[in-house]
C-alpha cells in the first residue's frame, strides 16, 4: 500500500495511472483488512482527483468508490473527520473552484455523499456538525451540473435535521450548507421551496443569534427562486410587528433587508407601502439595534421604491430636523439617510435631492448627540464619494 501511494505522486503520468489503477483493483478485490490505511487512502486518492491527467482523475474516482463501498454505516461515521480533512487538504490546490474528480459526468460526489449523509442523519451531534460542514466544503468544490443528480439526497436530510431539537452549532452548520447549496444550484431547489421557507422562518425565531443570522442569509438566496414574494414579505412584516423579543425583531429586520435587496422589485404596492410605514415608525424605537436595522431596510427600499414614494420618504421623514423631536427619532432618521446614501446615492442625485439631503447630513453631523453626529459624518462621506 505504501509503495502504491508513493508511486501515485510520481511526476510521470503513466506511473500515476498505473499506481491508482492497482489501488482501485486492490481495494475492490482484496479480502485483507486495510482499514488502517483508509485515512491515507482518502487523502491520497482525493488529491489525485485534482490531477492534470484526465485518466488519473477518472481512475482515482473509481478507487475512491471502491474504498467507500466497503464501509458499513458504523465505519462511515468513524471516517467522517478523515474524509473532511482530505477534502480540506485538496481544496487549497484546486484551480477555478471545482475539483475535477467531483465533477465527472454521472459520477460526481457519489462515493462520499453516503458518508456525510449517514453522519447528518445518524451521527452524534458533534458528528452531525462535522458532516454538515464537510458536505458544505464538498459543495464548494463541485459544479452545479455535477450536483444536479444529488440535490434531493443532499437537501432532504439537511431539512430533516433542522426540524429536530439540536444544539445551535449543528443548526448553524446545516443552515450554512443549505445556503451554499442555494448559491450553487439555485433553481434546482424549487421543489423544496415551501419546506425551505418554513425551515428558515422557524430558524429566524431561534434563541441563538448565529442561527438566526444564518437563516436570514439563506432566506435572501431563497427568495430569488420565488415568483410570488408577497406572502413571504407579509410573514416577515407580521413577525417584525408582533414579536415581543427585540433580539428576534432585529434579526427579522436583517432578514427583511436581505430579501428586499434580493427580490424587492417583485413586491406588490400594498405590502411595500405597509412595510415602509412600519419601518419609518421603527426609526424612533427605543432600542438602538432596532433603529439601525430598520434604517438598513429603508436603504434597501430606496433601491426599488417608485420615485414618488422615495421622495416622500426623504422629504417627509429623513431630512426633517426638528430639535423638539426626541433624539432617538432623529437618530433613526440619520441612520436611514446614511443607509439610503449607501444603497441608492445615484437616485438621490438623479431625483434632484442632492441639496436637501446634503443640508440634512450637515445638520446631523453638527448636532451634539454623538450617535446622530456619527451617522451624519458617514452620510457626508458617502456623498463625497460621488463627486
UniProtKB/TrEMBL annotation:
Pfam families: HEAT_EZ (PF13513), HEAT_GCN1 (PF23271), HEAT_GCN1_C_2 (PF25801). GO terms for biological process: cellular response to amino acid starvation; regulation of translation. GO terms for cellular component: cytosol. GO terms for molecular function: protein kinase regulator activity. Keywords: Repeat. Residues 1-106 form the Stalled ribosome sensor GCN1-like HEAT repeats region domain. This is Stalled ribosome sensor GCN1-like HEAT repeats region domain-containing protein. It comes from Desmophyllum pertusum.
